[in-house]
Amino acid sequence: MKKILFLSILILFSQSCKNILEEEIVSGITADYYNTPAGIEDGVKATYEPLRSWYGTQRGYTLTVFGTDTYTKGADGDYKPVNDYIATMNTPPSNTYFRETWNFLYQAINTANTVISRAPNVTMAEDRKAIRIAEAKFLRAHYYFILVQMFGPIHLTLEETTTIETTANRTPVLEIYAAIIADLEAAASVLPAAARGADYGRATKGATEHMLAKVHLTRATIEGNPNPTEDYQKAATYAKSVIETTAYGYSLVPVYANVFNQDNQENPEVVFAVQYTTELITNYNPNANPAGGEFNDGNKGHLYFQMEYDAGHKGTKRDIANGRPFKRFKPTVYTQNLFNLSADTRYTASFKQVWYANNDATLDQVTGPMKLGDTAIYLPAFEMPADVKATKKYKVINPSEVNSAGNYRYFPSLIKFLDPRRASIQDERGSRDFMVARLSETYLIAAEANLKLGNISDAVNYINVVRRRAAFPGKTADMEITADQLTMDFILDERARELLGEMHRWFDLKRTGTLIDRVKKYNPDGGPNIQPFHVLRPIPSDQLDRVTNKEEFQQNPGY
User: Is residue 436 a contact partner of residue 273, using CB atoms and an 8 Å limit?
Assistant: First the structure.
């Protein structure tokens, strides 16, 4: 999938998804192209493409990581109101991300609808046709799952739109979940167990069951659900299948840090990943969005979680290995204190604490002897006493300084997404794959579902598998928990430790009904302002403007 040039197919969209995909238009292609085998193949590829406009983008991180208990605002960026939960989060530029997400996901849904409706009448190998339809259903479900969690009752359409429509519905949330689950169940019955070689990155039965587990886990929490226990049971069952089915080929990478090794991205822990590449033809579109939004411009996760290490410090300068520090997202005190530093490898595997001297032009300005390669900046996870700090020739930034009022520039920097393969220091395009789902999360889904079912022993066992993998050598026993320690708060803490920054957190807090309380408790910038209505995002104003049935299709309360 990495080397496929995703095509835009010229079709008509409804008003709720009116913009044609901002991709290269291939001369001579019309809507009839979907009535051919090549059209179905390219239509499915086009349905995958919007994954790149969500995963690994500032838009995606802003709407899933920002404004939670784990991350607050750094020094730079135009979207701070999303974190701060103030009124301007629904005015430019912050509301741009809500609008773009709504539009490109509905565009993707209509492309999937077109494939699903046209393919049955196309002459091609029946087994291949069935798989392509199943992929489209998997992706349609995936996009609706994002939308319904963010916006609540939304427009549900499962048919291809070929004419302009001026009305839209607000389908009840449980009906949308029913459609999502129906798509996933249909996909799971057809998709192959695994995808290898040229098919790596396509949907599989294992990925579909992981998603079914997460969808059922989420639907169990929806108000009005007549049988949440059944959903929890299905979540547990699907997660167990993903973990135990040999044909899927999944296993945890033995060392946590190696999960993020860019030289081993296609590792057995990956359940589903969005593919990126160093090839410009598939990883760069300079005309994609002249207004400045991100579409198909590489995985940019390496930019946003880095502190300002390259200015105001002696002996350092920006380089490719350490990343381009956009300093958008700063870990909260809660996040910094989550880890057992003596037993859990995930703190040092997740955060950069040391920067080494790489700027010979400023070495002579440093007090005491220093040479290239020496420690230049150190952020200890403990408070270094002032008298000890005074003896160091390098700069020490203590936790008290990191978390002092007004400091948004210096903080432990998440290294999971660093990308030293970029072409230059200033290049923003990253080629690292984005792991949408990995097996350790499947274990945590299984633990959460079993906790809700009262199967405490099973839940503890699932948690401990993840925690044992994260242990320093000889510290396995220190990482294991017992039944009396397992609570929903503990699972949320464990998800934060394991999945930090991986675009799950806002959805996790919403699903568990803890978004308001945890932001109030742990996010110093968003906490004073967040209100109950913030569990939904605002419907984009252009969507509200273009519908004619305005009494039925209204803004979410509070906006």
Answer: yes
Looking from the CA of 417 toward its CB, the CA atoms found within 13 Å total: 29
Sign of CA dihedral 445, 446, 451, 453: positive
Half-sphere exposure of 280 (CA within 13 A, CB side): 5
Reading the block at residue 299, the tokens are: 């995985």
Relative orientation angle of helices 439-453 and 228-244, to the nearest 10 degrees: 140
Query: Rounded to an integer, what is the distance from CA 227 to the centroid of its chain?
Result: 29
For the chain, how big is the Rg over CA atoms in Å?
A: 24
Angle at 64 between CA 328 and CA 412, to 5 degrees: 40
Which pLDDT value is given to residue 5?
30
pLDDT category, 24, cuts 50, 70, 90?
Answer: very low
How far from each other are the two terminal CA atoms of the chain, in whole angstroms? 40
Alpha-carbon distance of 359 to 366, in angstroms, equals 11
Q: Answer left, alpha or beta for residue 210, where phi above 0 means left and psi between -120 and 50 means alpha.
A: alpha
β-pairing, 354-356 with 375-378?
A: antiparallel
Distance of alpha carbon 230 from alpha carbon 222, whole angstroms: 13
Which residues fall within 8 angstroms of residue 292, CB to CB, at 6 or more apart? Answer: none
Instruction: Tell me the residue type at 404.
Output: S
**Average pLDDT value for residue range 384-388:** 96
172 near 148, Cβ under 8 Å?
no
Give the chain's count of helices (H) and strands (E). 21, 9
Q: What is the pLDDT of residues 315-342, one digit of tens each?
A: 999 999 999 999 999 999 999 999 999 9
Residue 288 has pLDDT above 60, yes or no: no
Q: Two tokens at 86?
A: 């103030």
Q: What is the mean pLDDT of the chain?
A: 91
* CA 171 to chain CA centroid, nearest Å: 25
Q: Model pTM?
A: 0.93
**Looking at residue 328, what DSSP letter applies?**
-
Question: Reduced to 3 DSSP states, what percent helix, strand and coil does the chain have, rounded to the nearest 5?
Answer: 45, 5, 45
pLDDT of residue 367: 56
Q: In 3-state terms, what secondary structure has residue 83?
A: helix
CA distance 375 to 395: 9
Average pLDDT (142-146) is 98
Question: Other C-beta atoms within 10 Å of 27: how many?
Answer: 5
In 3D space, the residue among 15, 219, 99, 177 whose CA is nearest the CA of residue 559 turns out to be 99
Q: Are residues 430 and 298 in contact, defined by beta-carbon separation less than 8 angstroms? A: yes
Predicted confidence band at 532 (pLDDT cuts at 50, 70, 90)? very high
Extract long-range pairs of 528-533: CB within 8 Å, 24+ residues apart: 529/84, 529/85, 529/86, 530/67, 530/85, 531/85, 531/558, 532/558, 533/557, 533/558, 533/559
